[in-house]
Amino acid sequence: MSVVDFGKMSVQDLELESKPRPSQPNWYEQYLQPCLGELVGSAFFIFIGCASVIENTDGTGRLQPALAHGLALGLTIAVLGNLSGGHYNPAVTLGAWLVGGLNMMLVIPYWVAQLCGGLIGAGLARVMTVWERYENATGAAFTSIVSDDQLPAAVVGEIVMTMFLIMTVCMGAINEKTKSPLAPFCIGFTVTADILAGGAVSGACMNPARAFGPALVANYWDYQWVYWVGPMAGGLLVGALIRVLMGDRKTRLFFK
Q: Which of 52, 85, 95, 256 could make a disulfide contact with 68, Cβ separation 3.0–4.6 Å?
């Protein structure tokens, strides 16, 4: 800057020049740390979820797993969510990307981190629990579907319950017009409500990572595709709904 230019600057310009400029996040904070956040968060969430199912021997029915999953998810998002957005679910990552809440370059790394986190969480639950209980619960893998007659209801249930979850995530934590500081706990309560409502129909997975980890550790793959197709379809539908109708002006593609 020349002396002449300096002389033409206003007081406000001088104040702005004197203030330190915020440093840009480096590659670690932009790309690696968010993936680590998804890995650790998914591991803790799925560990608590699996352990709650395996140790559910007191006749509480779906209440214990529902509360454990919901509380674990809400707390994990509240503590680690600022690192990555707190998805811990490939279907949520898909929905968040579709509504503009995630860099496309992070979608596949997030999915890998979430699946690895699910495997770690399910493995830790296996190590912690007594073998007899673990075996009786099939390692907390989803066993609610026992025949092909249940498939239509299970697939529809997974789609609708996942839509409710992802709608809460996108509207409560991403959409500018409807964001809420209570979003982590709203998301956790949504999971609790879904499990209480639909646990008997499909198990209320809503999360391919939650299905994959226990299935791999326990080697139980029956109807595994339901817990991928249903949640991912729910993510696509919510993304389309928010982009077309429900999102704020910046997000909507129409009716601006």
A: 52
Task: Report the pLDDT value the prediction gives residue 13, as an integer from 0 to 100.
Answer: 53
Residue 253 lies inside a defined structural domain of this protein:
no
Question: Mean per-residue pLDDT for 112-133?
Answer: 97
Euclidean distance between the first and final Cα of the chain, in Å? Answer: 43
Higher pLDDT pick, 209 / 249: 209
Four-residue CA torsion sign, 173, 208, 202, 99: positive
Please state the domain count of the chain: 1
What CATH number does the domain containing 153 carry?
1.20.1080.10
247: left (phi over 0), alpha (psi -120 to 50) or beta: beta
For residue 115, the number of C-alpha atoms closer than 13 Å in the C-beta half-sphere is: 13
Q: What are phi and psi for residue 222, nearest 5 degrees? A: -60, 125
